Amino acid sequence: MQLRRRMLTSAIALSMVGLLAACGGDNAENTTPTNDGGTNEPVNEPADNGEANANNGNDANMNEENGEMNDAAGDGEQVTLTYARGLDATGATEVLIEAFEEQNPNITVEFREMPADTGASRDQYVTEFSAGDNSIDVFDADVIWPAEFAQAGYVYELDRFIERDGIDMSEYFEGTVDSGTFDGRLWAMPKFTDAGLLYYRSDIVDTPPATWDELIEMAGQFAGEEGTEFGYLMQANQYEGLVVNAIEFMGAYGAEVLDADQNVTINSPEAVAAIEKMMEIAQSDFVPSNILNFDEPATHTAFLEGQAVFARNWPYMQAMTEDEGQSQVVGNVDFALLPAGDAGSAAGLGGWMTMINRNSEHPEEAWELVKFMTGPEGQKITAIDGGSAPTLRALYDDEEVQNAAPLFANEEFVSTLENAVPRPVSPIYPQISDIMQIELSRALAGEITAQEAVENMEQQIEAALAE
């Protein structure tokens, strides 16, 4: 399944360069364009860390005794909201805010820029929200944060708002909704998305590999042609990007880390097969000898220098391949769906969501902002002015969106987004990621077998969940 080469607009170049992995932590996404008061006491005190609050967002939004909504939006009261996200070099955030304020003259939105490093942003949010700080009302969240923030009591449950306003969540890509869902409830609205792709040298390869076995064969066969040295590049360093790559292999072979009930399911024949295939590639002679040190920047640098036939990376790299100022392979790169395993092709889900601080004094107005930014009009602005991939399937049929970035008009790219696989949705995801990074690194280095890796991960993740 071939994706024809498309040159992206300057807007998507600015946006996607930062979207290195949309993974979170001080890892794959260090330069992601991460996202972005009054005198009354907070509506609700946050729940104790580690405890899910079944009434998050409900009691705060409705006074159950008199049935009146608190701070109802549109009642004429002038309200100021603070919206937080990281650096946005595209200017789309300013356009979003202006459009929202024009439609909601009683609401003023102040933008607060957070650190570009997503790990630093997360730590700052946790520090403020756990202390009951209400200076931020709405904020953008990495797709791996919602479960953690929900269980800690930092954010509002959104189901009441969604049901009241008749929002059809089936119109969003399923994986993006799953990322914002924890304990059967939705805590974050999908804002924009991202998914892994297979890049290949079109001057060497006519048709990209359909399966991982075909990739192994072709990488070995074509390595060395047209000045290349390697057959394949991936993110195998011990960091978040390694987990994303592993989730893609696991999805391709029908494995998962956790099921919907938070049971650990990683110790399965499918997971063993996936990790064995990943090990086969990482230990082959067609990858760099230091592949265990490769992250996204190392991958795109080597590929742009013409060193490899194939590379797994995020959509941001496509614009770079066509930039004559940094690419030695201009005009010779196409991209495709990642190869399939026994269960099909799977791409790791990245992207950002939008949440409401549970300490916000204006949850109704905050919801109006969230609804606008993550709805059709807001996402269209983010796509056209920011180059970010929408989470609403229908926007890929919009002519203006397609013209803003030809990638958005590519049906197979859209299929990749539709089938993107989220990382484990868990309130202790950072711990799960650390466990997986260590055991996967040991397996790729040949220190343990795939079976030992899944057994170790199962034992450690179960212990972490039991704490």
From TrEMBL:
First and last residue of the signal peptide: 1-28
Q: Does the keyword Transport apply?
A: yes
UniProt GO BP: maltodextrin transmembrane transport; maltose transport
Gene Ontology, cellular component aspect: ATP-binding cassette (ABC) transporter complex, substrate-binding subunit-containing
Instruction: List, alphabetically, the Pfam families matched.
Output: SBP_bac_1
Q: Where is the composition biased (Polar residues)?
A: 28-42
Give me the stretches of Low complexity compositional bias: 47-73
Q: What domain of life is recorded for the organism?
A: Bacteria
- Which residues lie within the region annotated Disordered? 28-73
Q: Which InterPro entries match?
A: SBP
Q: Give the similarity note.
A: Belongs to the bacterial solute-binding protein 1 family.
For this entry, the protein name equals ABC transporter substrate-binding protein
Which species does this protein come from?
Paenalkalicoccus suaedae
Lineage runs: Bacteria, Bacillati, Bacillota, Bacilli, Bacillales
